[in-house]
Amino acid sequence: ARHDFRVGIPDAALFPFETWRRLMARQLRASAMTAAYMDPSGQPELREAVARHIGVSRGVRADATDVLITHGAQQALDLIGRVLLEPGDCVAVEEPGYPPARLLFQSLGARVVPVPVDAEGLDVSALPDDARLVYVTPSHQFPLGIVMSPARRLALLDWARQRDAVVIEDDYDSEFRFGGRPLETLHGLDRSGRVLYVGSFSKVLLPGLRLGFLVAPPSLQRELRLAKQVADSHSQLPAQAVLARFIDTGLLARHLRKTRREYEHRHARLTEGLTRHFGSGLRLLPSVAGLHLCATFARGGARLEKALTGQARAAGVGVEALSPYFAGAPTRHGWVLGYGALTADGIDEGLRRLRASVAGAL
Ligand SMILES: Cc1ncc(COP(=O)(O)O)c(C=O)c1O
Questions:
Q1: Residue with the nearest Cα to atom 2 of ligand 1?
Q2: Strand, helix or coil at 240?
Q3: 121 lines ligand 1 (CB under 6 A)
Q4: Could you read off the pLDDT of 102-142 as tens digits, one per residue?
Q5: Which residue is closest in CA terms to ligand 1's atom 16?
Q6: In the chain, what are the domains?
Q7: H or E segment at 133?
Q8: In angstroms, what is the C-alpha Rg of the chain?
Q9: Residue 73 to residues 69, 122, 222, 259, 333, Cα–Cα distance (Å)
Q10: Which of 95, 139, 172, 205 to mutate for ligand 1's pocket (most ligand atoms within 8 Å of CB)?
Q11: What pLDDT score does 359 carry?
Q12: Whether residue 145 has its Cβ less than 6 Å from ligand 1
């Protein structure tokens, strides 16, 4: 589609290619590389830098030794699953939720149970009793965009403590927050060492770099390190070194300030435009962060969603239907709209075409 509201990607045009190339060139020298294998947990300077970065940007209290460098959030989930799951174990995920996480746990032989998300986040009272792992996106629920309420956060941690379950907090895009005070992470609220905090540089930098990390309690660090070692020995050395420099020299903070401003601008245009064009026909779910937002149809269900999404595509507007994000029968219908691939002006034009393509059906 020419007007591409694709979900889950940042704008490559904002990436500091020049700087990255310069830092990378410095790494690709005999003096910077050795012929040896490195620490499976990641390069010490990067673990150090990440620990500091998430301390500042997210208030996560972690030492370098608590941080393990991965190939994206996806590998963090894989390592956690390898260490904690036996085939047949129950894993609870959000409904609707992030399909790659669901598929991953299924691929490890887990029984994956979708648990509904309401206006406060995951419905803790609907968790299956035997869930061993609970996967959540509390700071910006994927795909609905809801922020998990403080009460729910405490209820989830309480639930996990009573059942001796482990919580995975996927904080994939919360560096992009547009106002309001961020809530404390589950990791920060946890007093019993049962939250694994997962982060990614896929939104902040680029998904193709495959840079992510996890923060684990001491009791799991050895096993996670071994899991990373058997999976792929360790993440690529030059990229780790470059990212460490990028963080240490303040370039990441600067890049974040710049991109946050830009995405905030796009988020405002999209919110404003959707309201102007569709009025009460679309309900915008509250959204204060990230690179996408979710809008449900005020009237109409699966048939309307399919028809309008198809009409939009035919008119060159790529919008994603909400229902594929459900594992079971969808209970909400609408669109998930990303603004990583469109400039603010592109958003205006895309929305004009979107409205024309649905011709008053909303
Ligand atoms: C919920 C969620 N988690 C994680 C990620 C990033 O995954 P990765 O770091 O594997 O690229 C995304 C990206 O779309 C996401 O939506």
A1: 172
A2: helix
A3: no
A4: 999 999 999 999 999 999 999 999 999 999 999 999 999 99
A5: 8
A6: 3-12+253-358 (3.90.1150.10), 16-252 (3.40.640.10)
A7: strand 131-136
A8: 21
A9: 10, 20, 19, 21, 27
A10: 172
A11: 82
A12: no
